[in-house]
Amino acid sequence: MLQWWSLGSGSTGNATLVKAGPSSRPTYVLIDCGLGQRALELALLEKGIEPTQLDAIFITHEHADHVGSAAGFSTRNRVPVWASHGTSAAAQLHVLGDLLHITGDGEALDFGGLAVHPFTVPHDAREPLQLKCTDGEEWLGVLTDLGHITPHVVGQLRGCEALLLEANHDADLLHSCRYPPFLKERIAGPLGHLSNEQSALALAELLHPKLRLVVAAHLSQQNNRPELVLKALGDVLDQARLAGSVGNVELCVAEPRRPGKDQP
Ligand SMILES: [Zn+2]
Ligand SMILES: [Zn+2]
Asked: What is the pTM of this model?
């Protein structure tokens, strides 16, 4: 059974824990390590997991809210790290030595009970990846930190039963906030982050009858509000349900630096 928890989401730090395989011998993979080392270790212990029990850490890209404490955490707990060439270079992950493994778009990583499939996304990082993963029965798609949706992204995530989907900002709130113009342009640009509207369009492309869970992620605390996200994505799901193209899909919001919702 595939289980996952958002341990933190947003510009203050991202980490998602995925568990697969039998409870007697589970596989644990951490996607991003954007929390402080102590906060991350505490978050894991709250789930009953010792940091040394992690089988792998997958780093999506070098921004501090994702790579965070990866080098220190990996070294201290002897957990191997997977990242792209570009991410490894930009984040200086070579200091990990033989704990570092390079991956890229189109590869399939086998961690025993959990297979991870990374793919390229358009974001202002050196070689950013997002991913889908499966325990052989169910697929989870993880998609944050991208400026727009591409056919490649949609193709990779089609058929996922669960989605962790970026809904970073409300376009009007971003437009009227006090950020300097260059920062607004960066966030709203083609290599920035998905707005609620873009996230809703992405979700509309990923609907299918077996979709059962959507967790909105990487919300800006400054330029978004959970109720706006739930309305934007909820409208898409409501329309699809009326049209009979999806069943009952649970929709919730991943919170910053706090354990997310347990996924049954
Ligand atoms: Zn980010
Ligand atoms: Zn980023």
From this structure: 0.95
